[in-house]
Amino acid sequence: MKKLKTTLLLMLLCMAVIAQDKFFTKNAEVSFHSSTPMEDVDATTNQATTFLDRQTGEIVMQILINSFHFKRALMEEHFNENYMESTKFPKANFSGKITSPIDWSTSKEVEVDVQGKLTLHGITKDISVKAKIVPGKDKITGTSKFSLKPEDFGIEIPSAVRDKIAKQMEVSITATYEPYKK
Amino acid sequence: MEKRKIFRLAVYLVLAAIIIGSISVWYVFNKPHRDIASEKALFNLTAQQLMTEYQTNENSANEKFLNQVIVVTGKIAGVKSLENSSFIVSLEDEMQGVTCSFDSSDVQKYKKMFTDFTPGSQATIKGRCSGMLMDVQLLNCVPKER
Fold first, then answer.
1. CB atoms A73 and B32 under 8 Å
2. Among candidates B128, B134, B67, B133, which has minimal Cα distance to A86?
3. Angle at A70 between CA B25 and CA B141, to 5 degrees
């Protein structure tokens, strides 16, 4: 946790040197979804903080778990208290980079590979996902859709409700990055 | 009492239990989200004080504030409307200050009060403390009269 914070702050400090390469947003949208015959699980947050460095292709993202909103309050409560244990593990972190070559001077959408470490529920795993990036001078849009298995992150789902919660969660991310200015 | 009468009474009691049980389960299943506007704030402090507590020791600040309803007062550094119609007010510092998020469903209700939210002016906001990323985050906020 402290390491990521230091990374974030270091990126901030480096901003002064090459200001235009650092992009950021505090309001990226992250949602996840799963359908089961019994009930759909849907949650969204608009408080994801993420940085993108055009020069290195590095991407970091941090989310407060309790900022995910569910339509059903009871589901939100179970999510925080029983599954994610968000008082013990308040944040989800991703730290990685775009591994495909990308021409930042175009403004055409390009599909890229992003690889990095995702920490969820206190457990860190390497993930590799596809993302779509639309570069721009004043705005960079990044979107990604991928699946995660709750059990990969030690998220225990009691057998009684197992059928209600699909084995995979479909995660969607939309981030509109703006130049970071200090 | 007759056996028959006892039997009937028993059936009625069981039925009543099932009905009451089902209604209770239904209520819990559909329990509403917390109504931050009606909850009493546990702490009342300045945005600067909140930021200092979190910057000094995030863990003890979380122990104190996480998921609690608090009221903060501070200088507005910036306001922003998001695509999903929710509204964001940053106090003291846009990047590392206190960020207050108003749900889109509350934006219409408090529209008049939002016109007073201009950068530089003071604001008092009640919300649920969600923790700290770069900034201290308050969710489900409602504006308060000063």
1. yes
2. B67
3. 110
ipTM of predicted assembly, 2 dp: 0.85
Q: How do beta strands B136-144 and B98-102 pair?
A: parallel
| Residues B89, B102 contacting (CB under 8 angstroms) | yes
Q: Please tell me the pTM assigned to this model.
A: 0.86
Mutate to test the interface with B, among A67, A85, A119, A182 (most CBs of B within 10 A): A67
The tokens for B74 are 């501070």
Contact state of B80 with A27 under an 8 Å Cβ cutoff:
yes
- How would you classify the pairing of strands A41-53 and A22-34? antiparallel
d(CA B35, CA B103): 12
pLDDT tens per residue across all 146 residues of chain B? 678 889 999 999 999 999 999 999 998 888 989 988 889 999 999 999 999 999 999 999 999 999 999 999 999 999 999 888 889 999 999 999 999 999 988 888 888 888 888 999 999 999 999 999 999 999 999 998 75
Distance CA B124, CA B120 (A): 13
Q: Do A90 and B66 touch (CB under 8 A)?
A: yes
CA distance B122 to B74: 5
Taking the CA of residue A41 and the nearest CA in chain B, the distance in Å comes to 14
Token pair 């799963």: residue: A34
| φ, ψ at B86 (rounded to 5°) | -80, 165
How many angstroms separate the CA of residue B71 from the nearest CA in chain A?
18
Distance of alpha carbon A110 from alpha carbon A136, whole angstroms: 12
